[in-house]
Every structure is written in C-alpha cells, then in structure tokens.
C-alpha cells in the first residue's frame, strides 16, 4: 500500500477511523471510572468486585493484544480491526443490559476482546499508512483526537449516570462504533505481512493464564488474606506461568512468536516499553482511585467528579499533536525525560490532598502537571516503541499496547491491594478512636472491603453516622497518599529509564 500524508483525503479518513475506534476504548475507560461508585452502590458490590469490572476488560485486552497484532499481520489489519469494532459494540450493549455485577464483569471481559482486536490495529494502520517524516505528528493527532473523545467521557459519563443511570455509559459506544465501522469498510485499504507464519496460540494461552493468576491473587489477597492458599497459590502460579511464557517465546524465536524478541534488541524500543510500563501504571492508578476519592471522600456528584477529571484530558487532547510535531524535529529524548518527571510531580502534589479538600488548591495544579507531562510523552514514546522494521509493525504495536494495558491491570490490582490493606488497618484504628460503641464499630469494619463505599447503617444516630463517615474518609485518604506516592516514584523511574536508553534522534530522522 502506498504511504499517505495528512493532506490527502485517504490520510484524513484513515486518521478519522482509527481515532474513533481507539477513542471508544479510551472513552469507555473514562466513563466507566466515573460510574463505578454508582455501580458499586447499585449492586452493593465490594471494592474487589468493582475492581474486576475494570480488570476483566483490562485482562482480556492485555492478554490478546499481542495475538491480535499478529492476527492483523497475518489475515489483514483492516479485517481484524473491523471485527474488533463489531465485538466491542456488541459487548457494550450487553454491558448496558447487565442485571448483576457478575454479568457486567463477564461482558466487560468480552468487550476487552473487541478492544484487543481494534486498538493495535489502529496504530498498525497508522504506522504502515503514513510517511515516516509525518508519523510522529499523526500519532500525536491520533492520541490527541482519541483523547478528545475520551475528554467528553468524564462529564458525559457523569451526566448519563446521574440523569439516566449507569447503563447509558455503554450505550454511547453504539453510534461511535457504527461510524468507525462504516468509514473503515468503505475507505481504508487492506494491509498484511505476506511473510507472516504460524500463529503462537500457545503463547497467548500462557500469557492469559499468567496474567489472570497474578491479578486474581493480588486483588483477592487483601480481603481473603495474603497467606490463604488460593491467593498465595494464584500469585505464585501466575508468576510461574509468565516465566514459562517467556521461555516459550524464546524457544519460538526462529518461528513466529507472540512477542518477537528481535524488536527488543534495540535499546530504544526496550527503553520505550519500560517507560510505558511504569508511567502507564501510574496513569491508570491515578485515574481509578482519584475518581473514588472525589466521589466517596470529597462528596462530589458524578457530574462534578467528571468535570474535575477533565483538565489533564483536555491538555492531552489539545497539546499532544503539537508535542508530537516537536518530537519529529528535536527527537524524543528531552520530552521523554521531562514528561515522566512532570507526571511524578503531579502525582506527588495530589498525595497531599486531605478530606474536605479545596479542588483548585489540592487537585487542579497536580492534574495540570500530570496532563502536561503526558502530552509531552505520548507521541515520542509511541513512535519510539514502533521504531521497528515495517513487517513487525503489528507485533510492535501489540506489544506496546499490551504493556500499557498490563500496566493498567497491575495498577488496579497492586494499588488496590495496597489501598485495601492500608485502609483496613487505618479503619480499625479510626473507628476505635471514634465515638462508636463496639457493635457499631464492627458494622463499619465488616465493610472494609468496600473501601470508600462503606455504607452507614440506617440505625446510626446522626453523631455516630458523622463519626463513622470521618473514620472512613480519613482511612481512605491515608491509603490514597501511599498509592499516589508509589505512582510518583514509578513515574520518576520512567524519567530515569528515558535518560539512560532514549537517544536524541530516532533512526531515519
């Protein structure tokens, strides 16, 4: 396929279709996050259950991204991309019709399969369609416009949740998906790797089982106990299976592995993927727990919480494109060092927010720093991770997207475990110091698995209810500060990795 530019009609249509499809996945994440406290209350779900609403999607997405990238290379990137849109939209409809948290978790897992088929396809189509000289700008625009769709998510998701009910955060995917599908079928040409070989189905199975075991154990451990046989066994089994996956991929190096280890011979590609892992861990950890903080601790409505989450998304939307163009001119190194550093500063700043915090003082400056860092980072990071021979484009895109999604899944699992453990310890101390009788204390402590979603029993007096609410809020803030501190440290590690591995210029610049 001949390569195109942004000035050509074909280039604009390719960018539009890929932006709409990937934007749906980003949009779904932002709307779901705002709706989670309402979903938790509607189904009387535990913190672990609402974590699974997010992680069921992330698990199938992370597990299958690599395989779907190879599927696109082998059977046609447009074909896999199109079927991914169809499955994503169908699962969105089923999620909206869910009548229990278990059903919602299952349908979110199916939706993750659809996202796994379309997200790497969008980047692979861009990487194979556009000229090298403009690819950084296109990726920046793709990220920015996709972020623009996501930018409406917090407010629109909050409004839909508050005005119509949480199922409507999934109905909105229907028109977006239909538009993306029609454009793709009519205007985007097919592309594939003619030298693609046998698919690594067994490698995909090892990866999925390993990630499931690890994430299940991490999320269940705080509630069931770290020494319980099925939590510690799940974590150990997950680690062992992931080691087997690594061994299998190395064994497959002369065939068609799920992860072509040749792409990691480049320090640039290796460094970019390491930065992706640590920075996106911090990104998703912030997004998930900040939403809970704003609604369950600060008392914001879904609409207001959605608006409060907009600043970094708007910054990413409008400035990622220009930042991508700048990286085309000056190279990726400076932006990939400064970006994670600003993200770390933003995370650290928000760690100081307490209960009844003033948004403009305690959250807004940190979100601006975070958004500025991400807009500097996204385009050069993605372009660096895709600096591979063209026939590896699908696999490289799948690897980078899988790493970002694994980071998201691990962030929710690991930080969820940290948050629940610290919250439970702090809650025991705080309710003991509050003006609550032993029976009331037990009623609150027994709900510690709900984190900030603890429900105050109706038989509490107003004074007891206020004391219990303060104990819950203070316990959440204590755990939240530790989580933000971990995020800040990881983002700073990303800046250090960039300093050590990223050159001033990419190959071919």
Please characterize this protein's 3D structure.
With about 500 residues, this protein is mainly alpha-helical. It has one domain: Up-down Bundle (Growth Hormone, Chain: A), CATH 1.20.1250.20. The chain is built from 18 helices and no strands. The longest helix is centred in the last third of the chain and has 41 residues, at about 395-435.
Q: Largest beta sheet, briefly? A: none
Mean pLDDT: 80
The number of helical elements comes to 18
Share in helix: over 70%
**In the CATH hierarchy, what is the class?**
Mainly Alpha
CATH topology: Growth Hormone, Chain: A
Descriptive tags:
single chain, 509 residues, mainly alpha, Growth Hormone, Chain: A
Q: How is the secondary structure organized here?
A:
Blueprint (H helix, E strand, L loop, with lengths): L8 H35 L3 H29 L1 H20 L4 H29 L2 H32 L4 H4 L1 H15 L13 H24 L4 H23 L15 H31 L4 H7 L1 H21 L2 H18 L8 H4 L1 H22 L7 H41 L4 H8 L16 H40 L8
Helix pairs in contact: 1-2, 1-4, 1-5, 1-7, 1-10, 1-11, 2-3, 2-4, 2-8, 2-16, 3-4, 3-7, 4-16, 5-11, 5-12, 5-15, 8-9, 8-16, 10-15, 10-16, 10-18, 12-15, 13-15, 13-18, 16-17, 16-18
């Amino acid at each position: 396929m001949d390569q195109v530019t942004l000035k050509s009609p074909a280039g604009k249509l390719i960018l539009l279709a890929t932006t709409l499809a990937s934007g749906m996945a980003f949009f779904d994440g932002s709307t779901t996050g705002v709706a989670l406290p309402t979903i938790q209350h509607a189904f009387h779900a535990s913190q672990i259950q609402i974590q699974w609403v997010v992680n069921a999607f992330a698990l199938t997405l992370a597990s299958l991204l690599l395989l779907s990238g190879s599927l696109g290379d082998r059977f046609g990137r447009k074909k896999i991309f199109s079927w991914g849109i169809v499955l994503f939209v169908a699962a969105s409809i089923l999620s909206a019709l869910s009548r229990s948290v278990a059903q919602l978790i299952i349908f979110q897992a199916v939706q993750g399969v659809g996202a796994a088929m379309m997200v790497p396809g969008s980047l692979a189509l861009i990487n194979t369609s556009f000229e090298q000289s403009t690819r950084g700008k296109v990726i920046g625009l793709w990220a920015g416009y996709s972020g623009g769709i996501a930018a409406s998510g917090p407010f629109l998701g909050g409004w839909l949740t508050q005005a119509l009910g949480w199922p409507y955060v999934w109905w909105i995917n229907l028109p977006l998906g239909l538009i993306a599908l029609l454009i793709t079928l009519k205007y985007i040409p097919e592309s594939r790797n003619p030298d693609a070989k046998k698919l690594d189905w067994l490698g995909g199975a090892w990866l999925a089982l390993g990630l499931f075991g690890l994430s299940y154990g991490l999320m269940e451990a705080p509630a069931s106990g770290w020494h319980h046989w099925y939590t510690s066994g799940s974590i150990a089994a997950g680690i062992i299976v992931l080691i087997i996956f690594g061994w299998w991929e190395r064994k497959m190096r002369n065939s068609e592995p799920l992860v072509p280890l040749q792409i990691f011979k480049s320090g640039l590609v290796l460094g970019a993927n390491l930065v992706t892992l640590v920075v996106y861990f911090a990104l998703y950890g912030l997004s998930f727990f900040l939403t809970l903080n704003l609604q369950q601790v600060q008392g914001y409505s879904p609409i207001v919480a959605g608006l409060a989450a907009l600043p970094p998304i708007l910054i990413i939307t409008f400035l990622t494109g220009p930042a991508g163009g700048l990286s085309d001119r000056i190279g990726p190194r400076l932006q990939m060092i400064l970006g994670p550093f600003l993200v770390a500063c933003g995370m650290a700043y928000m760690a100081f927010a307490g209960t009844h915090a003033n948004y403009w003082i305690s959250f807004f400056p940190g979100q601006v720093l975070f958004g500025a860092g991400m807009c500097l980072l996204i385009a050069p990071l993605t372009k660096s991770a895709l600096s591979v021979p063209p026939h590896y484009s699908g696999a490289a895109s799948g690897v980078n997207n899988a790493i970002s999604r694994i980071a998201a899944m691990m962030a929710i699992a690991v930080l969820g475990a940290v948050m629940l453990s610290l919250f439970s310890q702090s809650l025991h101390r705080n309710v003991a110091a509050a003006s609550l009788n032993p029976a009331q204390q037990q009623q609150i402590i027994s709900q510690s698995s709900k984190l900030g979603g603890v429900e105050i029993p109706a038989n509490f007096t107003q004074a007891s209810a206020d004391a219990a609410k303060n104990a819950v809020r203070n316990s959440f803030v204590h755990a939240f500060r530790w989580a933000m501190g971990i995020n800040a440290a990881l983002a700073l590690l990303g800046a250090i990795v960039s300093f050590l591995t990223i050159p001033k210029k990419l190959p071919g610049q």
